[in-house]
């Protein structure tokens, strides 16, 4: 297990990068704790796999260093870093049995016959392949082969880190949930440092202790699922986390009030007047439908019943605002306004969250 430090790290695939757009990874300075489970979350092309490959040693960074437990491993080969990596598509030895595939990393390191047998049996049980241990990998389905890849990555107990690059892409949805649960159980049992790359927010939020959200080659926020939901530090985090994502509205903000399209919106904190492109952000869960004169005037365009709740799509001067209501909630025919929970409204300037001067205490 290892603490992983990214020190002044950046990477470009071009020989002479000249502009910020030339860098696949902008400068990163982070310390990832020993024994923590992290998810790298972001859209395709944001730099997740580049960063993972730098950590594993498959790619040398253009600048900066990688440290494992304060030891510089930037120039070390992958094998010397003592990590296990599972890729997006299955990598197995087709001519070997499932048992031999799982045992291969342990045999390479001279483990005892009994330890190998016990460990292979335990991992086969974890990935649901005990019945196939004697079968050759060649005749198995793609998702079965990927389970072997996962198992081979997890079979060693002595690794510095376990790295997963979108490992559940070819796994059927039901098995995805089971394998994520098993990975979480493995982490709790052995305390490996785990880094899991995904573009799927559900995978990230259910797997990780901390989620590292990447956008355009940068880490825009690292935090717990609750922190990402309640206080997105960047508008991309608000948009990317949640379904639907955060509502963003251009606003003028000063003190405890925002003005949106000429309408005053109360805030749950006091702000200095922000500069730049100012917006307020509020998640659909904290939008209230209202009848009367208060709030923003809207037109309800449609209501989508998604089973566990309803999504109400509203129009405010050409801008869509989404609200979430309970499954059994009715929508009064006179609803023409919406309001926001002031404590749940965030303020942004040029896409970055603005820290308030002070919170407003609301009497119980």
From TrEMBL:
Gene Ontology CC annotation, any one: ATP-binding cassette (ABC) transporter complex, substrate-binding subunit-containing
Matches recorded under InterPro entries: AAA+_ATPase (IPR003593), ABC_transporter-like_ATP-bd (IPR003439), ABC_transpr_FbpC (IPR015853), ABC_transpr_MalK/UgpC-like (IPR047641), Mo/tungstate-bd_C_term_dom (IPR008995), NA-bd_OB-fold (IPR012340), OB_MalK-like (IPR040582), P-loop_NTPase (IPR027417)
Domain ABC transporter: 4-241
SMART domains attached to this UniProt entry: AAA (SM00382)
MF GO annotations: ABC-type ferric iron transporter activity; ATP binding; ATP hydrolysis activity
Keyword annotations of the record: ATP-binding, Cell membrane, Membrane, Nucleotide-binding, Transport
Similarity annotation: Belongs to the ABC transporter superfamily.
Protein name according to UniProt: Carbohydrate ABC transporter ATP-binding protein, CUT1 family
Organism in which the protein naturally occurs: Roseovarius azorensis
């Amino acid at each position: 297990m290892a603490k992983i430090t990214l020190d002044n790290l950046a990477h470009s695939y071009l020989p002479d990068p000249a502009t910020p757009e030339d860098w696949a990874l902008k400068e990163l300075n982070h310390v990832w704790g020993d024994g923590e489970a992290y998810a790298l979350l972001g859209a395709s092309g944001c730099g997740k796999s580049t960063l993972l490959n730098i950590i594993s040693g498959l790619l040398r960074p253009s600048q900066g260093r990688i440290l494992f437990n304060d030891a510089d491993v930037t120039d070390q080969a992958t094998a010397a870093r003592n990590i296990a990596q599972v890729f997006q598509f299955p990598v197995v030895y087709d001519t070997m049995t499932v048992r031999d595939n799982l045992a291969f990393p342990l045999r390479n390191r001279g483990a005892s016959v009994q330890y190998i047998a016990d460990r292979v049996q335990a991992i086969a049980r974890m990935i649901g392949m005990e019945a196939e241990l004697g079968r050759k990998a060649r005749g198995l389905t793609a998702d079965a082969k990927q389970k072997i890849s996962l198992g081979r990555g997890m079979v060693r107990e002595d690794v510095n880190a376990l790295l997963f690059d979108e490992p559940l892409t070819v796994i059927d949805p039901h098995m995805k949930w089971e394998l994520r649960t098993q990975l979480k159980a493995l982490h709790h049992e052995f305390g490996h440092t785990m880094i899991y790359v995904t573009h799927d927010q559900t995978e990230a939020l259910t797997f990780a202790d901390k989620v590292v959200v990447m956008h355009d080659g940068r880490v825009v926020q690292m935090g717990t699922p609750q922190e990402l939901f309640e206080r997105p530090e960047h508008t991309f985090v608000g948009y990317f986390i949640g379904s639907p994502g955060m509502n963003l509205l251009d606003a003028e903000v000063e003190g405890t009030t925002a003005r949106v399209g000429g309408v005053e919106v109360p805030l749950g904190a006091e702000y200095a007047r922000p500069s730049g492109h100012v917006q307020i952000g509020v998640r659909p869960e904290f939008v209230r439908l209202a009848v009367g004169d208060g709030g923003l005037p809207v037109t309800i365009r449609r209501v989508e019943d998604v089973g566990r709740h309803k999504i109400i799509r509203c129009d405010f001067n050409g801008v869509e605002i989404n609200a979430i209501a309970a499954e059994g909630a009715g929508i009064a025919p006179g609803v023409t306004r919406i309001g926001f929970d002031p404590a749940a409204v965030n303020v942004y300037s040029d896409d970055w969250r603005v820290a308030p001067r002070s919170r407003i205490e609301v009497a119980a």
